[in-house]
């Protein structure tokens, strides 16, 4: 069974069609890259997949279940998680406290308005373990506003995997990073277990070709190519529209 099946999905904003009959499939464990020039509809597609925007037409299946009409929180409960282009950390909380909140949101049985964040021992231990596992223990007690942008992107990724998602959508996770930070974040993505299916929007073609099992190319809201790395490298339409070939 496919992890995600997108069938003829469209999204209109008044008279503007941002997505037009887009169809694609992501298989379990696949690293599926979504590429295309600015305005191609990539983030709009992610917003439709997560329920931020309602589809104007078509359907979305998550492991065979139709989620087209479900609100975002129900999609999250079914195993769909996402990062955004702009980090969503609480700036005055420590990195550890941000992770604790993410874990509590994923496990409602652990949530309590009357108990300090750090008082739930199992959740606290898991938060510490996540930061240890991803070599971020050194910044655990720093507030989010004190850490670098690259570190924020890394913490964003930890928050997304805290809920143990089945399908993870990464919206330009290396945008704005230095070369060293790109290496770090790409390394984290490589380390994610194959139990997690990844869809990732990326502009850096070298990174896209390095990470992808499969690539979908969007242009002006339409799917123009879909295939493995070799097929996309050799597609003349992709070269003309996206890579700037003459």
Give a short overview.
By secondary structure, the protein is α/β, with parallel strands linked by helices.
Whole-number tally of structural domains? 2
Going by CATH, the homologous superfamily of the largest domain would be P-loop containing nucleotide triphosphate hydrolases
Strand content: 15-25%
Strand order, largest beta sheet: 6-7-8-3-9-10
Order of helices and strands: EEEHEEHEHHHEHEHEEHH
Indicate the CATH architecture of the largest domain. Answer: 3-Layer(aba) Sandwich
Biggest sheet details:
6 strands, mixed
What is the rounded Rg? 19 Å
**Class per helix and strand makeup:** alpha/beta
Q: Residue-averaged pLDDT, rounded?
A: 91
Helix content: 25-40%
Q: Any low-confidence stretches, pLDDT <50, length ≥5? A: none
**What is the CATH topology classification name of the largest domain?**
Rossmann fold
Number of DSSP strand runs: 10
Describe the structure.
The chain is α/β, with parallel strands linked by helices and 246 residues long. It has two domains: 4-79 and 165-241, Rossmann fold; 89-149, no CATH class. Helices cover 34% and strands 24% of the residues. A six-stranded mixed β-sheet has the order 6-7-8-3-9-10, with helices on both faces. α3 (95-106) packs parallel to α5 (149-161). The radius of gyration is 19 Å and the shape is globular. The N and C termini lie far apart (41 Å). 36% of the residues are buried.
């Amino acid at each position: 069974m496919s992890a995600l099946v997108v069938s003829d999905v469209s999204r209109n904003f008044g008279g503007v069609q941002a997505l037009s009959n887009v169809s694609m499939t992501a298989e379990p464990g696949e690293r599926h890259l979504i590429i295309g020039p600015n305005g191609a509809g990539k983030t709009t597609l992610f917003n439709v997949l997560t329920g931020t925007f309602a589809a104007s037409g078509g359907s979305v299946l998550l492991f065979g279940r139709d989620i087209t009409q479900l609100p975002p929180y129900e999609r999250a409960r079914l195993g769909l998680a996402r990062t955004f282009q702009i980090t969503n950390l609480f700036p005055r909380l420590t990195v550890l406290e941000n992770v604790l909140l993410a874990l509590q949101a994923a496990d409602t049985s652990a949530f309590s308005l009357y108990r300090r964040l750090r008082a739930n021992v199992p959740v606290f231990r898991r938060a510490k373990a996540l930061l240890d596992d991803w070599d971020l223990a050194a910044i655990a007690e720093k507030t989010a506003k004190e850490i670098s942008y690259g570190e924020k992107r890394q913490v964003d990724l930890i928050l997304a995997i805290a809920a143990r998602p089945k399908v993870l959508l990464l919206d330009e996770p290396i945008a704005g990073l230095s070369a060293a930070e790109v290496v770090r974040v790409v390394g984290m993505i490589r380390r994610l277990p194959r139990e997690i299916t990844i869809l990732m929007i990326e502009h850096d073609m070298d990174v896209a070709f390095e990470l992808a099992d499969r690539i979908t190319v969007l242009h002006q809201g339409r799917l123009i190519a879909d295939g493995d790395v070799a097929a996309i490298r050799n597609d003349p339409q992709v070269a003309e529209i996206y890579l700037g070939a003459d």
